[in-house]
Amino acid sequence: MIYRVIGRSGSGKTEYILEAIKKAHEMGKECIFLAPEQQSVAMERALCALLGSRYNLNVELLNFERLPDRVFRENGGITKSRADSKTISLFTALACENAKEKLTSYKNAVTDRDFIKKISDTVSRMEECRITPKALVDAASLIKGENEAFKEKLYDIAQIYHEYTEILKEEYADSYRIQQWLYDSLKKNNFFSGKTVFIDGYYNFTKGEFPIVEMIFKGAADTYISILYDKDEQSGIFDVNKETLSLTEKMGQGVTNVYPDKQRKRVESLSYLEKNLFSGKNDKKFSDDSVSIISCKTPYEESDCIANEIINLVKKGYRYKDIFVAARDNNRLDGFLDAALKRYKIPFYMAEKEELSTKELPSLILSFLEIASSDWSTASVIKYAKSSFSPLTSNEADLLSIYAECWKIRGKQWHDGEDWEFNPSGYKTNPTKRETNMLLAVNSGKKKLSFALEAHIKALKSRSLTVSKGVRTIYNHLIHIEADKILEAKANKLLEQGKEDEAAKISALWDSLMSILTTLHETAKDVKVTPRRLHDLIKLMMDEYKVGALPSYSDSIEVGNASIMRPSDCKVMIISGMNDGVFPASHESSGLFSNMEKEFLRSVGVESETLPEEFIKNEFLLFYNLCAAPTDKLILTFAENTASGGKSRMSSLADTVLGFYDKKCIKHYTPTKKTFKKKRKSEVETFSDKVSLTPQTPETLSLSASKIEKYLGCPFSYFCNYVLRLEKYKQASLSPAEAGTYVHSILEDFTKEVFESGTFKEKTDDEIKEFIDQRVKSYKESIFHGKTGERENYAFDKYASLLFPLLKNVSGEFASSGFVPVKIEDRTSITYPLTEKTEISLDGVADRIDVLEKDGKKYVRIVDYKTGKKDISPEDVKEGFEMQMLTYLFSNCKDGDIPAGVMYFLCGFPSSGTPPFMRNGIMLDCEEVKDEMKFLTDNSLFKKTGFHGQEVIEELKGIVEENVRNVGKNIIDGKMNISPTSRKKKSPCTYCSAKLYCRKKLSEDEE
Ligand code: SF4
User: Fold this and answer.
1) Would you say 820 and 851 are in contact if contact means Cβ atoms under 8 Å apart?
2) Residue 651 — pLDDT band, cuts 50, 70, 90?
């Protein structure tokens, strides 16, 4: 007898089936219970509760995946290995390659991972529907007219499919073949004979499952099958189950219909919603709070909102296990929702399994192969080095990556057996102690890395590499770096911390990886490969391999994809991502065929492809099942913007629900934003309370002119740069800063040499050229230690054209001026007492200090070299900027000395419209000084507006002191607020390295 337990969701079908199992169990009948895999844990619990822990003496819980093994164990039969999804992916990839020469449309796509995934899905669907490659060729021959492209496509798919079956039939069987054998085996000896079979929890059956269900009906003494169906439902969402109903009728056995009436106890409005969701009837408007539709700004906020809702529900007395969170799109769950739940410390169980390739050890294997395929590219080696499975300490890995990025290390440089000698900070001579220590750590990392990798990478790069050799090399490498032991230690640590589920996942990793390597070895061992191809094959298999875990908390929320979730005892259902195009999912031509092509295939008997109307009905059914699950509350959330910033709308399905409720059920998730904003503002205002920089004892605050400028530009930027020392590492190059140092050093050396005897000694043009040649050579030597390449030479040669005219120019000035350089690169330190206990020390280096002795008077001038644009005026100084040279000036004037002024010497490439080698400054407007600057003024190299009266310079002296004290006081008081100056044309934010951490930017975004 077939008992059809028919009803809508929540009508009591499962309860009826469980009661029937109980009766059969009590009567000592041999029972088989078939339920979907994702329901097995819940069903085992239910059976235990109903029948006690010894229920399995005569009740066996199975699903369609485990059934073949169970039957073959009893009937005998299968001798081949089961090809799981990773093996199928591998076989499809190999089939594509084997078929390549015979293909037309897809010839160039055979190594593309996306294509392999699509063709693998297409072939799987065809296998399931028992469609053979020949059937595809026959279908292609029926295509009329000019549609050559479609014909070629079908021939190509048939060819790949044929190759796939050839590979498969040797030693493996995929699940569809196993289903076929299971069917054949059941026909010979029906495993279900005399048994009582119960089938529950299936929304519908796949084409491959139908013949098995048929054999159950034929063999079992009694079959109880729950069918999600309501003949009065007009929307067509239950149409998929008409096939099951008609199959039962075809069996020629007695059929008894059962309509259970143990309705799930839902609140009234949810009951009404369940019955009428797609009926087109919504003559009631509910205003209870059983449904909420919440709009959020972004998917990130949406996850936050869900976590908040869960916390509020738990505060109201719900248990975590009463709450389910579903999404149609896995991206909503991965990275967004799981992160929010962890942040809020909400226990959860993710029904969805995580992709293997996202885990650290699999990722190390991929980067290991990338090193071989990319010949030690910087990115691949750094990725490898940063893994906790690499032999480097994290400090070594970090420093190594800084050095490698800085000096573009690649290829042989990684394993040439020599120590690196360049400065980790780039084109800099005279490394500091810190830089020397960095270099030591970098070289230690290099040695470990090259010891671990060199031999194995060499083996992978061998021309005779086969899959078998590649797999062995990977395994040997993992053992060499003790990845197995590290993994075990990690799992043990997690166990000690009570994180059993995490530990279980980690432990399963090794087995998963070994399974991939073994499958590869067993199935394709003699296939010749390159490291790149091996990488792609392994990645393909990893993409099919998911790592999951059983729920580790008895009270945790369940999170999962709408397509696989089977919520039981659900009080609250939260559906995330209720956006247009997300739920219902868009019927993107799932796979390789357009809708018209699918229609044609259906018309000629190829029924493997889902038509758009079937697809959308299935989406509606998934949504219906989720809405029908909760007894108390349904919460739908959506984001107004996508993660990448595009606009997004509420889904039509949410709109359908809204039709049953008062508009007030729509809410906007805002609280987080308000508190966030408020909190941020107050944080900024009270920053000084939190980070006190006030010296406790007599102390010296050490400042420099650039620190002061940074502070005046924006105190927070100063804080990031000089208090937190957040550094931005960059590539070694002759950047403007490094070029400046280089040009300055040559200018300084030249000045020292021409004034070696105390008075100026002019050089001829040839002597200047020779001087430049020597200096450039020795400068490069001090940076590159004789290892310059073309790139470095090019960068330095570019400046060669500048050096000769520059030195000629400065020579001309020295020859016609009474100002004599008396100090070069002079380190100056000035102390400004601030309070009784505190003082400021202003330290810096003056590029050049000139002295003019005339008529018994001594005039002092400060010269600063700049390769970029730079100007200075008394107004700048009054505002607190450009104080550097003036502080040097006043501190270098002894009693009786006259401060003659300060001057920037622009010694870089001139900007358009200005003569080269301009000087800008504030100089004393007196004949003695002006006479000695005639070379500059006559050649328009110094503007007359740069001369100022003595009273201006005197005034600036007081202002400078006051400004330094003010800045020092603010720093000591801890005033580090975000307040970029509005003074300059170019905002300090433009090139601010603290931009990443700056809250001001966030507040602007919020506005
Ligand atoms: S980005 Fe602008 S506001 Fe932010 S720290 Fe830098 S200078 Fe200050």
Assistant:
1) yes
2) very high
Residue 908 in contact with residue 739, Cβ under 8 Å? yes
Residue pointed to by tokens 């549609």: 147
The phi, psi pair for 378, rounded to 5°, reads -55, -50
Q: Tell me the pairing of strands 919-924 and 898-906.
A: antiparallel
Q: How far is the CA of 981 from the centre of ligand 1 (A)?
A: 9
Listing DSSP states for 98-122 in one string gives HHGGG-STTGGGTT-HHHHHHHHHH
673-730 pLDDT, tens digit per residue, is 444 344 333 333 333 333 344 444 447 788 887 888 888 888 888 888 887 777 666 6
CA dist 901 and 957 (Å) reads 11
Contact 902, 889 (CB under 8 A): yes
989 lines ligand 1 (CB under 6 A): yes
Amino acid, single-letter form, for residue 819 = F
Which residue from 803, 801, 802, 781 is spatially nearest to 792, judged by alpha carbons? Answer: 781
Q: The tokens of 163 are what?
A: 């190759």
Mutate-to-test residue for ligand 1 from 687, 991, 998, highest number of ligand atoms within 8 A of CB: 998
Cβ of 469 less than 6 Å from ligand 1: no
What's the token pair of residue 715?
């105190």
Beta carbon of 980 within 6 Å of any ligand 1 atom: yes
Tell me the residue length of the chain: 1007
Amino acid at 623: F
Q: What is the pLDDT of residue 372?
A: 96
Substitution site in 728, 975, 995, 1004 for ligand 1 pocket (most atoms within 8 Å of beta carbon): 995
pLDDT at 802: 86
221-253 pLDDT, tens digit per residue, is 999 999 999 998 888 899 888 888 888 888 777
pLDDT for the residue 549: 53
Packing angle of the helix pair 433-460, 360-373 (nearest 10 deg):
80
> Which residues, other chains included, contact 1007 with Cβ-Cβ below 8 Å and sequence gap of 6+?
none
Query: Does the pTM of the predicted model rise above 0.70?
Result: no
For the four alpha carbons of 792, 797, 800 and 802, in that order, the dihedral sign comes to: negative
539: CB partners within 8 A, 6+ apart: 113, 357, 366
**Which regions of 610-737 does DSSP assign to beta strands (E)?**
633-639, 666-668, 699-703
Is residue 182 within 8 Å of 68, Cβ to Cβ?
A: yes
905 lines ligand 1 (CB under 6 A): no
Best mean pLDDT range from 250-264, 339-353, 472-486, 510-524: 472-486
- Exposed / middle / buried, residue 498 (Cβ in 10 Å: 0-12, 13-18, 19+): exposed
Give yes or no for residue 1003 having a pLDDT over 60: no
The CA–CA distances, whole Å, from 731 to 105, 405, 427, 457, 489 equal 44, 6, 9, 27, 37
